[in-house]
Every structure is written in structure tokens, then in C-alpha cells.
Specification:
The protein is α+β, with helices and mostly antiparallel strands. Helices cover about 40% and strands about 10% of the residues. The strands form 7 sheets. The chain has a 5-stranded mixed sheet, with helices on one face.
Amino acid sequence: MSDPSKRKRPLVADKRYPSKAKAAAKKPVKKPVKKTAPARRRKTAAPKRARRGGIIGFFSRIIGWILRLIWKITWRITAVVMLVLALAVGYLYTTLPPLEDLLDGRARGSVTMLDRNGDVFAWRGDQFGGVVTADSVSPHLKNAVIATEDKRFYRHLGVSPRGIASAVRINLSEGRGPLSGHGGSTITQQVAKLICLGEPYDPSAGITEKEYEAGCRRGSIQRKAKEALFSLAMEAKYSKNDILSIYLNRAYMGGGAFGAEAAAQRFFGKPASAVNAAEGAMLAGLLTAPTTLSPTNNLDRSQNRAATVIRLMREQGYLTQAEADAAQANPAVLSEAAEARAGGYFADWVISEIPEFIRTTTADMRITTTIDQRIQKAAEDGLKWVFENKVREGSKAQAAIIVMSADGAVRAMVGGRRTKVSGAFNRATQALRQTGSAFKPFVYAAALDLGYSPNDLIEDAPYCKNIPGSGQWCPKNYTNSFKGMVTLTESLKQSLNIPAVKISESVGRELVSQVATQFGIQSDLAAGPALALGASESTLIEMTGAYAGILNGGSSVTPYGLVELTLLGDQEPLMGTGGGIGERVIQEDAARQLVYMMEKVISEGTGARAQFGGRQLAGKTGTTSAAKDAWFIGFSADYVAGVWMGYDDNTPLRGVTGGGLPTDIWRETMSRVHEGLPVKPLPMQSPNPVSGFAQEQPASDPIPVGNNSGGTIIDQVLRDIFGTSGSGSNSPAPNPTDR
């Protein structure tokens, strides 16, 4: 039997799940624990890399030590350099003048030119229209300048490392030095150059103003470094808009205009605040090459540059696509006032005649001139009409015209087919060209002054002259035919060469040269017998002035365009006219008879195409060998006009003689000049009786010269130098066949 006391007690529910009270009683009471900050978890230090041993470890430690040394030295040097730069910039900062002193950057004063009636027709010199600011100019102009010259202008501190690096890369890629060509200059750096880094011009320094300006633009490393420092100082001293304002006032924009206001008025006849996008783009485009791109020099080139500026403005968001398209479709053009007041060749010539010390003054001046704008327009229109109606399209031939009064006062001047120019090559005053038969009147002037008569006879027959060292020289007529016995009048009328040479040899070449020189031809004259045929070179203004001397009765004239020069603010003129009628060259009777002979050239001879309006006209044609030059110079009772035609490179003219297109240009010009003027007779005199001086001699002998008791310059030269033989030198000469 089992023992009941040892039996396991049955499981009871309350034993299995003790009551909450008992459980709570049995649960130990926890003591409050004082909160402490959690302990920071220590970073486990990375295990030290074991030093490399051997030779590799040794060199690694050496290199590390060197790098640490370099770093310590570098940051110290950098700190010193930055301190020095800061001191340099600070010093330059203290030298910068007030903003107002930097706005007018002209080196010379402006020149206002008045015509013979007192009306303004041109400006020259350095014009300054007045101070503008970056806020007062048209937004289109401001944006165009920034887009073209410095698109990061508002984001840099005066120097753009990115721009410099790009410029160096371009220069090297184009085979130039790193500092040659593109400069990468910011607008601030350009302003620094404009004010020459604060170094004013000192005349006592022994350099000219041009050399000073060249030094300001020098691109050496030292100069570039100083320019950078100066730019940083300017950025510290002035605001961005202040710097842009200096630029807009001092920059040269072509046509003699300094600053945006002067340029806007000069080219468009409006203030800088009113220019549109196309005009603003043109003005901004001028900053690259103001003389070359000036619209008064080459409007097409200026418009092409403006088109590029408009594209840049569109790319940089300054213009919408529609605005850019409108600006491209309607490019800027010169205003009527600007075009009319370009002044052209005449204004340039007048300025060139002013002494250097006056021309380079910084004072503003006013010049009264001889030009007549009505006559100037007549000359331009006459030239244009002939080239449009009688010259093949695309021809590169050039022409020049001078119109003057009998006293040498120039009333019109055209120096080439492009008439609205400034600073261009002036074929009327600068081109030395062979004169051809246009020189022959001076041969006959010498003869008439010695007593020859226009009715004297001379034989037009084969003629040769022995030139020591060159052999026989046998001139020919233009037609290769001979007329036999002819009068001097007939000889000049038909522009015969052989009689002209015979007369020149008779009176003496030196005497003929003296007559031409006294009449105003200052160029060197040929020494050989071809002198009579115009082998010498001269300018159109000299030749026209010499013909004016024939018209006025035989006195020399000095062509002039300046009447009076006055500094603004002064009452008394600083300079008066430098030309006019001078000494008598030939007797008045001789001059009047020469006019008679030259009238026959137009009424019956080679210049017949010059006739117009039933007026008495006199003149002479001229064509050089191979037709490289063609001339017609003539006069009415009121005005003298000269025309030259040819190629700049001496290419022969095709089918052109002095009696052709040059005569047409002369007629078209002079007929317009004389519109509304009363008809006046020429001051000419019928021939004296036959003198007997020109009795024909054998062809190998010179024609003898008779005595003359007159009291002119020629008489004195003949008596004092040549006696009465009139023998000329025998030096070699070219053989032009001329008409």
C-alpha cells in the first residue's frame, strides 16, 4: 500500500496563478536609480599602420616631410603676397581721382566747320557730347556694351581669370604670343587703360602724345600686372555703374566722337538715351575698331559688326528673338544730318592744312571755310551720274573732282567715288599722277608771254631729237598722223604733240618748268623734252589751281579752304586764310590769248563734249601713255573745275581718253554748278598779229625765240638765266603719246 502522506498534492488553480496581491508582495521594491549622462562611446582608434621598413619606407618618410615643408612655406608666402597686393591696391586706391574728373577723356578739342555761308557742314577733332551715366543711356546701348565687351562685368572683381585664360589659349592657337592679340580685358581693365593707369601725359617727358598713348596700350607682363592691380583698386573705389559710366564717356567711338553721347549725336542725330537696339549694337560694335568700323568710313562693315553684337545680345538674354529679328531686319543707318555733315575729303584736307601745334590743341575751335554745299552736291551728283550711266557695273576705276574760284578758293572737293568718308585716301590732293596733255597750256603760256601769237604757224611733221646717252627720241601724235602747217591755236585745239615739243624746245624747257612752277605746280617736273607732253606728275588740286591762274589773268594762286580759325570763347581769329592770288606769272594779254586758244579746245576741238548751256567755256584734255590717267580741266567765267580719272594701281583705262569720261564728269558737274547763274563771257582776247617768231625751221633745229620787253617773272628769268637762246637740257625723257 502506498503511503498517502507521500502522495503529490494535486495542482490547484490558485497555485498555478498566484493572486496579484501575493505577486506584488513577493516583487522586490526597486530603488530609484540616479540618471547619469550616457558614457561617450570611445572611437576605436584605427590601428596604426605599421611603418614600412626598408628603402621604400625611408623614401616615403622623406617625401612626406618635404611636402609638409612645402605646405608650410607656401601658405606663409601666399599670406605675404596677399598682404603686399592688399597694400599695393590700397595705395592705388588713394591715388584715384574723384569720378567727375575721369569722364571727359579727350586729348584734343573739337572742330566745328562752317561753309562759306556760315552753316555747319562737318565736325572733326575730339567731340564730346556731354556726360552720360550707365543709368541715363539707352538700356539697349548699355546691354550691347556688356554683351560685347565683358559679359561677366557684374560678377568679377575687375579681373577675369577665365577671360585671361581663354585669351591666352586663343592667342597660342593662332600662333601668337600669349599676350599678343586677344587680351581678355574686362571693362574695368579697359577703363584702366583709358586713363593710362593714372599717369597723365607730360609734354616735358620728351615723348610725343602718340608715343604716350602707345605706352598706355603696351601689353608687357609688368604693364598687365599693374593694370590688374589698378583695376582692383577701381573696383574698390567706384561702383560697377561708375566704372561703366567712365567707359561710356571716355571710349573712342570713331568719327572723332569720344563717348556715347557724342557718337549717338554724330551718327544718328539723337541722344544716347534714345538709341534703339540696332543703333546701340552699332555703337557697341565700334569699340573693337572705331576707325575701321566707323559708319562714316564704311557703313556696310559697321552694320555687319552690329549684326554680330545683336546675336550676342540675344544669346545672353538681353533681347527676345522677335526683338533680335527686328533689329537684324532694320540695321542702323546714318541720319541725314550726320551724312550731310560728314565733311568728307574737303574737311580732312582743311584739317591737314592747319599747323600741327594748333591741330593738337585741347581747345574747341570753329573754322570758317570756302566750301559751297550746293556746289559740293553738284560735284558728287555729277560723278555719280556718269558712273551709273556710262561706266560698266563693277568697275574699280576711280575719279576725283576739284571746283574752285579764280582766286583759288576751293568750293567743292571729291577725292574718290565714296564721298561720305573721313580719313580716306584723297585722290584730289594726295595722288601724284602723270598729267599728259593737260600740261600743254603752260608750254603755250610761256610762248605767248614771250611774244608768240596764237596764229603763228608751226609744222606738224615727223620730228626726232638726239638725246645723249639714249639716242633718237621721236614723239608721235595720238592719231599717228601729221597735220602739216598749223597755227598754235590749232595745235592746242587738236592736242598735237610734235608742235608742243617744238615750242617747248624753242622757248626752253627750264622756262616752261618755271612757268608751271610759278602757276603752282610744286611737284618735280621732268627734265627731258617729254616735259611738254606731261611726263611729269602732279596732283589734281595743283593742276586746277594752275588753271585758275590762267583764268584770273595770269597771276598764281594758292588753293585754300580755310578762311578763318577761331578758338571758342575768343573774339579774334587765331588764324586767317593761307591762300589766294599771288604774284603775276605771265602778262595779262598773254593769259587772255591763252584763254582764247583753250576756248577753241571746247568749242571746236578734243573737249567738245564739255559744252553745255550755250556758255563760253575753256579747257584742256589730257591722256597719259597707255591711258593710265585721263584728265579734263577747264573753266567758265565763274569757276574752274578739274577732273582726274584712273585706277589706283595704274591699270590702263579701256577706251577712255581725257576727251571722254572725264569730260563727261566735268560737264555734268559744271552744268549743275551753273544752274541759275547768269551767262558771262570768258575774259579772252583775240590773237595779236602773227609775230614772225614761229617761222618754220628744219626739224633738227630749235625754233628761234624773239625778244620780249615785258616785265613779268618769265622775262626776268629769261634775261638773268637763259638769255635769249632758251636752250633746254638734253637729258633722257619718256615718250608718251598723248591727247
